[in-house]
Structure formats: structure tokens, C-alpha cells
TrEMBL record, chain A:
SUPFAM superfamilies: 4Fe-4S ferredoxins. It comes from Methanospirillum hungatei JF-1 (strain ATCC 27890 / DSM 864 / NBRC 100397 / JF-1). Pfam families: Fer4_6. InterPro entries: 4Fe4S_Fe-S-bd (IPR017896), 4Fe4S_Fe_S_CS (IPR017900). Residues 1-30, 61-78 form the 4Fe-4S ferredoxin-type domain. PROSITE patterns: 4FE4S_FER_1, 4FE4S_FER_2. Its EC number is 1.2.7.3. It comes from the Archaea. This is 2-oxoglutarate ferredoxin oxidoreductase, delta subunit. GO terms for molecular function: 2-oxoglutarate synthase activity. Keywords: Oxidoreductase.
Length: 90, 364, 263
């Protein structure tokens, strides 16, 4: 599991940077081709859903994807799901 | 049977399963009769809405579920419905609206007859559009034309209007109710076709809600998928031209009329209640050199019928308004068109029509 | 997946950057997804305004109707075919101003539809005019010296008119909102979920909430949980200025219309 910001949909409102309890997003610093400051996903490894979803077997948090008014944030599967290989960081 | 009730029975015979209405004189009996009959029919729904705007809205909503749906009203309620009638035209929603006309403007004469909405039905909503309007002149025609209205609505995917008036609506006559009426359902939407892609006749197939076609219906200018496209002039032009031409091109096909004495020199053109006086004059008094054209389809106006009278010297148009259709007829002919206007609620008397023929130069 | 319910070919949508309507659409789709409803049998209906563009981005049958009449159209759809699930998106102007009559009558009939009101306190589509929910003192293009009419409380209105389920959340409370919409969808009868949301372009710009985050911060700090307030505040105490209650206002079983017959 990893998070992805769809640049073609993002309008740079920065709501994700506000709501994420783990502060994994940072306001963008450079405009993209459409002149939009897309937030940077600078600490994706902190996302609890990406790390722990397999362990809990349900979706955790997900506030960024829900609050994104432009449906630009989503999870994409990274590799086939193998429950035993999930690494838990404390 | 009363005209209003015949109209309700005609609708039920045609398989009408949804009625949304609001009480208004002189159309109330339609709603009352539906309220009595519909709860006993499986799958049918009668609902009294909070106003006429909501009535027509509910009717359009119900039509999209595939139900044959209808409402009935009179002048003031008809004025309220105008915005959503435009919506029904734009979204190509088949539905039937019965208008039992009364004296206007405004509250006017609730219990008296008039034909003052005959222009409003065609031009009342904003923008260019075409609709189908039928005008009964007897209780039997109330039944027949209401049933027919549903077929036209489904075939052309458009709102269809039954423009009766207080006299016809409240008149009691004997009628013959057939065992079954002809039912024409809309063309289905072919598998894989876009929901607003027109067929060869300009009409697109219809798929009801809940059948998995995911149709986005919008009153905005839209493309064939139904997606809004409001800033493209060519798109708007082709859409509106199609909405108009799908009806106007078929006007002689839609036309429902009677012609008496094609050799006449003085021809009455009439619709609705005045037809009854005209019949009296032409058929019973046998006034020489006169004939008539009764229009049961008022809109789209079948102007080709006017050329069926080769010897005509003048068209005489008795109407219960200040000459609305007379003006439409004038556009299409070169002989004089003489309006015989009468408002206030009384029908024309035969004497008045005889006078009109004399004034036109006949009976000398 | 939520994305299965979106018309991907229509995205990105027309909403301004930071508009709360997109958030609310996400939450509603998330809730609809959880109900397990058949996409074929779910109908989204809307009137006119920013909020009302939402159904156009959702891959179901939808009706984008005339201003204020969405609930009347929904009544027709639901009564003619009670097996369909009907959700109405509406805005504050659409619901409380031009559609106020249809709104209270649908509550009175308790017809089985769910109405999600995206209340941004302004007419956004037409450029920021005052609406019946613009708070006193707030500026808009038609209240340039501050609104002086008392605003409507939509949740209280729906409750008084007889709706079976009424809740209010904000576009900040996405999780609670999703749960609330889900409860509304599953409650037979009329459900109203009022969602206070930000309009940075038209409302925020004129009322010192220029960035979307500014208004979110306001929503977060001024929303008072109804249960908590009732528990802690002495009876009769007024809410602090500018604060508003959020939470579930009513859940009841009045007689309903438009539910399929038990066959």
C-alpha cells in the first residue's frame, strides 16, 4: 500500500497538509505545469494505513483521501498482499 | 360522464401509473378521480403535491422511472409549471399535462371557460422549443386524446398537453369506452448507444432509471452522453434545433383533424369548445358555402391543412381569446383571416358565427 | 472502491480549489459504498448551484433539475419506483430559499429519501450573494454591509417539520459525516444531513477566511458537539457567539412514505 496524489486532479488547496495527524504532507514549493502547487508527500512512511492495514485487516484513518475535495488522493497497492511480511515500526 | 373524469379514465386506460397534482378549479375533478381510482391499481401512485411546481417536478421524476405520468391543472398552475416544462423539453421527458383552461390573466374567472393559454403552451417557457398540444371538443375526445397524448409523449419524448377548457371539462356527455386503447411505448435505448444520441427521426431511445444505463439527465445544454457542455455554440444550436425539428418535421404526421366541405368559400378553423358552435352552424343550419377545419392537434400547427380548401375566400377563426390562433393562421395564408374573439366565459352563439360569415361577404 | 462510483472522464470537477463540496461528495460516496446498494438502483438528484453539480460526476442515473425543485423531483422518482434508492444533493440557497416549501413538505410526508445539504452560507455559483443561511454580520455581494437578516437553522427546521433523521456536521468532520450519512441512508423516511462547508472563493474571500484551511480551522474550533454541550452546559445557557452544534439531532420512527411494500 502506498499513497498517491493524482497531479491531474489536485488543485493545491493544501487541506491534506492540515488534516493529516502524522503530517505526512507538506505544502508544495514548486508549481507544476498547470501552475498548481501540489503538496509534497514527504514522509509517506508514517502513514498508519500504509503500514498497518494488513495487520488490522481494515482501513485505518484515511482522512486525507476523504477530505481531498478533488478526489486526488488514493492508495495504490504496492505489491501482492503478504500479511506475514508487514513491518511494524514503533 | 364529465370531461375531466373522461380525461382521467383515458389516462388510466393508457396505463398511466403516476399522478402528481394540486387542486385548482376547474381541473380538480381529474385529481379527485385519480385519487379514487389509483390506490386500487397495483403499482400506481397518486400524490397530492404542495404546489404545481412540485406536481410537474414529481411527474418528470416519475417519468424517468419509466412510469406513464400525468398532472392536471388550470391557468395559474400552468404558469407556475412553465420552468419545469422547459426542463421536460430539454431533458426529453415524456409526460402528459392536462390544462383545463379558465379565464385569465391572473386568478381571472375560475369557473368560466377560455382558450387563453393556447400561446402560453407553445411559448410560455423560456428559449426556443416545440411541444405537442391537443384540444378536445367533447367528452369522448377528452378520453381519446388523453390516451393518445401518452403515445405521442412516448414516441417523441416530449411533454404533451391536453388543452381543454372549463366547458369541456365540466360538460357531461355519454361516451364509449373501448375495451383497450392502443399503447405505443418509447423506443428502447439500444445496447451501447449514448442516451441522448438521436435516431433517424431525431428522437433518442429511452431507458428508465434503475436499468443500469447510468444516464446523467441535466437541464443544461448537454452532449449525446448527457454531459453538460454549456459554452459551445454549435452544441447548443444542434441540440435545440433537434428538439424543435423532431416535432415540427413530423407535424403532418401528428396532425389529428376533421375537415367538412373542402369546397367551402368560408372556412371556420376551430379547436376546443367553439367547434361545437361551428358544427351547429355548418352541419345543422347548413349555411351555404361554409365548411370547417377542426384541429385536434393545435401544436405543432399543421399549416398544410389550410391548402385543402381551394375555393376559400376567408378563414373565420372563432376562439375564446383575443385571436391567438388567428394570428398563427394568418402567417400561412394569403386570404383574409377573420378572428371571432369572445372572452368572458360564454361560448359563441350560432348567430354570432352567421354574422361573421355575412361580414366576410358570404350569404349574399 | 469509491472510484468505481465516479465518472472518471469528467474529473477534475468544476469546483474551486479547496471547495468543501468535493469533500462531502467523497463522504457520501463512501457511505453509499458501505450500504452495499446496487449502483443501478441508486439515483442522485440535485437542483441548481455548486452543490448540484455533484451528481454529474457520479456514475449512476442522475437528475440535475431546476433550482430548488430537487426534492420534488425526488418525490416523483421515489413514489413511482420505491425500489430505487434516492439521494439528493442540495445547497443552502437551493434547499432553504427557493426550495423551502418542497423541503418542509418532504419532511412532513417523511418520504424515504436522504438529503445532503452542502451549506456554504452563500450562493457560490452566481458569485457570492447572501443566502438564507448567511450568518448575521457576514458580508456577501448582496449584503455588502453585513447580513442583517436572521439565518435559518436547517437542522431545527427539518426536525420541526417531521424528518426521521437529522444530523449536522462540517466538511472537517469527515469520519463522523460519513457515519452520519450512512445512518441517514439506512433510516427509512426523510433524512437530512446538513454539512457546513467552506467556500473560499465567494464566502471566505469576503469574510477573512481566504485560504481553505482558514475556514476549516474555524469549523474545527467552533463546532460544539451536541451531546457534550447538553451534558456539560447548564440548561438555558446560550452557545458562544459564532459557535454551532454538530451531531445527531434526531433519530425516530414516524410513519414513512415511499418504502417498498413488504411482499
Amino acid at each position: 500500500m502506498k499513497l498517491e496524489i493524482d497531479e491531474s486532479r489536485c488543485k493545491g488547496c493544501n487541506l491534506c497538509t492540515m488534516v493529516c495527524p502524522y503530517k505526512i504532507y507538506r505544502p508544495g514549493s514548486r508549481p507544476n505545469r498547470r501552475g498548481i502547487y501540489v503538496p509534497d508527500l514527504d514522509q509517506p512512511e508514517r502513514c498508519p494505513n500504509c503500514r498497518l492495514q494488513g495487520l488490522y485487516g481494515r482501513r485505518l484513518c484515511g482522512v486525507c483521501a476523504l477530505i481531498c475535495p478533488d478526489q486526488a488522493i488514493r492508495w495504490v497497492p504496492e505489491k501482492p498482499f503478504e500479511p506475514m511480511k508487514v513491518v511494524i515500526e514503533y | 360522464m364529465q370531461g375531466n373524469i373522461a380525461s382521467a379514465e383515458g389516462a388510466l386506460a393508457a396505463g398511466c401509473t403516476f399522478f402528481g397534482g394540486y387542486p385548482i378549479t376547474p381541473s380538480t375533478e381529474v385529481a379527485e378521480h385519480m385519487a379514487t381510482r389509483m390506490p386500487k391499481i397495483k403499482g400506481a401512485c397518486f400524490i397530492q403535491m404542495e404546489d404545481e411546481i412540485a406536481s410537474i417536478a414529481a411527474v418528470i421524476g416519475a417519468a424517468w422511472t419509466g412510469a406513464r405520468s400525468m398532472t392536471a391543472t388550470s391557468g395559474p398552475g400552468f404558469s407556475l409549471m412553465m420552468e419545469n416544462i422547459g426542463y421536460a423539453v430539454m431533458t426529453e421527458t415524456p409526460c402528459v399535462i392536462v390544462n383545463i383552461q379558465r379565464g385569465g390573466p391572473s386568478t381571472g374567472q375560475p369557473t368560466m371557460a377560455a382558450q387563453g393559454d393556447i400561446m402560453q403552451v407553445k411559448f410560455g417557457s423560456h428559449g426556443d422549443y416545440s411541444i405537442i398540444a391537443l384540444a378536445p371538443s367533447s367528452v369522448q375526445e377528452c378520453f381519446d386524446l388523453t390516451a393518445k397524448a401518452f403515445n405521442l409523449a412516448d414516441r417523441f419524448r416530449t411533454p404533451v398537453f391536453l388543452m381543454a377548457d372549463e366547458v369541456i371539462g365540466h360538460m357531461r356527455e355519454k361516451i364509449e369506452i373501448p375495451d383497450s386503447v392502443e399503447i405505443v411505448r418509447p423506443k428502447p435505448l439500444p445496447e451501447g448507444a449514448l442516451p441522448f444520441a438521436p435516431g433517424p427521426d431525431g428522437v433518442s431511445g429511452f431507458a428508465a432509471f434503475g436499468t443500469g444505463r447510468h444516464i446523467p439527465v441535466t437541464g443544461l445544454t448537454h452532449d449525446e452522453r448527457g454531459y453538460p457542455d454549456t459554452t459551445n455554440p454549435a452544441r447548443h444550436e444542434s441540440l435545440v434545433r433537434r428538439l424543435v425539428s423532431k416535432i415540427e418535421d413530423a407535424r403532418h404526421d401528428i396532425a389529428d383533424y376533421s375537415i367538412v366541405n373542402e369546397e367551402a368559400e368560408y372556412v371556420f378553423v376551430c379547436y376546443g369548445a367553439p367547434v361545437r358552435t361551428v358544427r351547429e352552424v355548418v352541419e345543422r343550419l347548413r349555411l351555404p358555402d361554409t365548411g370547417y377545419l377542426q384541429l385536434r392537434t393545435v401544436w405543432p400547427f399543421p399549416e398544410g391543412l389550410l391548402s385543402r380548401f381551394p375555393k376559400v375566400k376567408a378563414f373565420i377563426v372563432p376562439e375564446m381569446n383575443l385571436g391567438m390562433m388567428a394570428r398563427e393562421i394568418e402567417r400561412h395564408v394569403s386570404v383574409p383571416v377573420i378572428p371571432v374573439s369572445k372572452i368572458g366565459g360564454d361560448l359563441h352563439t350560432p348567430e354570432e358565427l352567421v354574422e361573421a360569415v355575412k361580414a366576410a361577404g358570404g350569404l349574399l | 472502491m469509491r472510484d468505481d462510483w465516479l465518472r472518471e472522464d469528467r474529473l477534475p470537477h468544476i469546483y474551486c480549489a479547496g471547495c468543501g463540496n468535493g469533500t462531502i461528495m467523497n463522504c457520501v460516496l463512501e457511505a453509499v459504498e458501505k450500504t452495499g446498494w446496487d449502483q443501478k438502483k441508486t439515483i442522485f438528484i440535485s437542483g441548481i448551484g455548486c452543490s448540484s453539480r455533484a451528481p454529474g460526476y457520479i456514475l449512476t442515473d442522475s437528475l440535475h433539475t431546476t433550482h430548488g425543485r430537487a426534492i420534488a423531483f425526488a418525490t416523483g422518482v421515489k413514489m413511482a419506483n420505491p425500489s430505487l434508492h434516492v439521494v439528493v444533493f442540495t445547497g443552502d440557497g437551493d434547499l432553504a430559499a427557493i426550495g423551502g416549501n418542497h423541503f418542509i413538505h418532504a419532511c412532513r410526508r417523511n418520504i424515504d429519501i436522504t438529503v445532503v445539504c452542502m451549506n456554504n452560507h452563500i450562493y457560490g455559483m452566481t458569485g457570492g450573494q447572501g443566502s438564507p443561511t448567511t450568518p448575521i454580520g457576514k458580508t456577501s455581494t448582496t449584503t455588502p454591509y453585513g447580513a442583517d437578516e436572521a439565518p435559518f437553522d436547517l437542522a431545527e427546521l427539518a426536525m420541526a417539520a417531521g424528518a426521521n433523521y437529522v444530523a449536522r456536521w462540517t466538511s472537517f468532520h469527515v469520519k463522523q459525516l460519513t457515519d452520519s450519512v450512512l445512518t441517514g441512508l439506512n433510516t427509512p423516511g426523510f433524512s437530512l444531513i446538513e454539512v457546513r462547508c467552506q467556500c473560499p472563493t465567494s464566502y471566505g474571500r469576503r469574510n477573512k477566511y481566504r485560504e481553505p484551511v482558514d475556514y476549516m480551522t474555524y469549523l474545527k474550533s467552533h463546532a460544539v458537539l451536541k451531546e457534550k454541550w447538553e451534558r456539560s452546559a447548564a440548561p438555558g445557557t446560550e452557545l458562544p457567539v459564532d459557535s454551532f452544534l454538530v451531531g445527531e439531532f434526531v433519530r425516530r420512527q414516524r410513519p414513512v412514505m415511499g418504502v417498498p411494500d413488504e411482499a
